[in-house]
């Protein structure tokens, strides 16, 4: 498997700072002390290297997610699932579209994924954790000084049975920001013969132990209805362009949202969410999020793989209320 993955990656010799350069189709990725340089047939484009590595980490962690993952206003990926992943520059930016500077290239999921993983392995410093909030980690800058930080190899924990009432998990301590969080458990009365089949779990207690930021984890699945809570702090390292309606319920903390037209990047709205606020996002917008303190967000996704095609054919609404027959 490792050899197979390596065969998909094209890398060159290390530069003066000790970092390798990577090729992917018409793209070339190089890092220096502060920036990622992306060369493509139309020229070159630069992204601050910390933001780039945080975005790459999410894009791999989410397996390119639903629809568009923009690293900034210009560069990103669009997941077309079995058709592949489109890597683009300026394709969903009004100014770049008008000037004809945009470029894109479609790759098989495995190829782009292997290249992104190899970039992280070579570029992430030993003291910089791309999953962490800025207060929790070191600097992404400077010449190569070893690495990578072991967090880049983090895997989601897949449970094989229903999580019940285990309350102490030494490997996942409560985050510093949630030390004073006091939850009140619900009550469950159950016949003894069913005791093995049911359990109560305090979601706040569970999320307080989340060891990463901005990484939705599926905690319940009922057919295509997926509850994906996550903890957030600082800035979502990517802008997500939806390919389906998506719902957010803020459980605690604060979150500000910047909403843009998905295909042009033109700003449409700002929202400020307080605990208990719910937002429902249309299928044709993109959003970025800011959290001034560690916050808990419940993301509700419809995992139906047919949705992008149904939306394209106009067979399913793109606005949330229309899904329920409302205006
Ligand atoms: Fe989203």
Question: Describe it for me?
Answer:
This protein is an alpha+beta fold and 327 residues long. The chain has two domains: 2-144, no CATH class; 176-323, Jelly Rolls (Sandwich). It has seven helices and 17 strands. The protein has helices at residues 2-7, 49-61, 94-99, 109-123, 203-208, 307-312, 320-323; strands spanning 10-14, 20-24, 27-31, 35-40, 43-48, 68-70, 75-79, 85-89, 103-107, 220-222, 225-235, 239-241, 246-252, 255-261, 267-273, 278-281, 285-302. The strands form two sheets. Strands 6, 7, 8, 9, 10, 11, 12, 13, 14, 15, 16 and 17 form a twelve-stranded antiparallel sheet that branches. Strand 6 and strand 7 form a beta hairpin. The structure holds fe (ii) ion. The site of fe (ii) ion has 4 residues, from loops.
- Tell me the total number of β-strands: 17
Instruction: Give the overall form.
Output: globular
What can be said about the biggest beta sheet?
A: 12 strands, antiparallel
In round numbers, the mean pLDDT is 92
Radius of gyration: 21 Å
Report, as a whole number of angstroms, the end-to-end distance.
50 Å
Bound molecules: fe (ii) ion
Given helix and strand content, the structural type is alpha+beta
Question: What are the low-pLDDT stretches, counting only 5+ consecutive residues below 50?
Answer: none
What string gives the helices and strands in order? HEEEEEHEEEHEHHEEEEEEEEHH
Q: Tell me the CATH topology of the largest domain.
A: Jelly Rolls
**Number of structural domains:** 2
| Assigned CATH architecture of the largest domain | Sandwich
